[in-house]
Amino acid sequence: MKNIRKSSQVLASLAAIAMLALTGCSDPEAALSEGSDEKSQERPTAEFNQEAADLLPADVKKKGTLEVATTMGMAPLGYPDPKSGEVVGLNPDIMAAIGEVLGLKVTMKAASMDQIIPGIQAGRYDATAANMAITDDRIKVLDFVQYYFANSSLAQPKGNPKNITADTLCDKSVGLEVGSFQFTEVMPVKSKACAEAGDQPIDVQGFPDQQKALSALDSGRVDAVAGDTPILLYAANLNDKIEVGDALTDGSILGIGVDKKSPMTEAIAAAMNDLIDSGVYQKTMEMYGVGDLAIDHAEIKK
């Protein structure tokens, strides 16, 4: 597996995603969707792998479909196509390729981050590909198949008039996606540190997705946004009123999640490693400007 990168290296590799923003549009989802038809045609297709498909449970083989939950408002990783309303982006493309390896039709289902795990537990979804960090709490209820590397950063108004840094968030309002890694793990720790130091806690503002949090930053309703670095970089390169600031984490390998009771984990892992070995995975990552964040082996984390 590729070595974990330093924050500066992560930011440098993620900066390639700015090339997707040269349309000059201020709406991240609309900008990327202008080329969605062409991008769909460019997506490399994967070959069926019988050995991987043999790992599927009988009921999934019979059904022939895989229902996968993801979040909207995460351009270019997951966002609604304005023509069809379907979820498109990097996450759907990776899952579509996994489906091709396994001989399954993949259907992406939009959900907010805080709805995904309950939805999997209730049987509404077979899996999730939603940029999930593999945390101690999540691994209690889900098994994960690794699929790429990412970290978290801050975004703030251009010029940083309030001196927003990772260490100056006390008494600042920070927009976050409800249920995200930043919401459940990063900000609670930082806010607790503020209180222990005798400062005011961070004013955490929850939003349904990261794009809505960025809209609040753009309109001045929050002082900063904490989110996934690829999404923030993409948004900042479309909107000259905001900029990406400090990294909040060194980063980690994210996971495709399935229920602890599901027998799907081995099949999805086999499919991911087939995509890595065939080069389809790397080409897909490069298509979205994040080829340097690819992994060279997908491990199962339980």
From TrEMBL:
Signal peptide residue numbers: 1-30
Superkingdom of the source species: Bacteria
SUPFAM superfamilies: Periplasmic binding protein-like II
Keyword Signal: yes
InterPro entries: Solute-binding_3/MltF_N
Keywords annotated in UniProt: Signal
Pfam families: SBP_bac_3
Domain (Solute-binding protein family 3/N-terminal): residue spans on this chain: 65-292
Protein name, UniProt field: Family 3 extracellular solute-binding protein
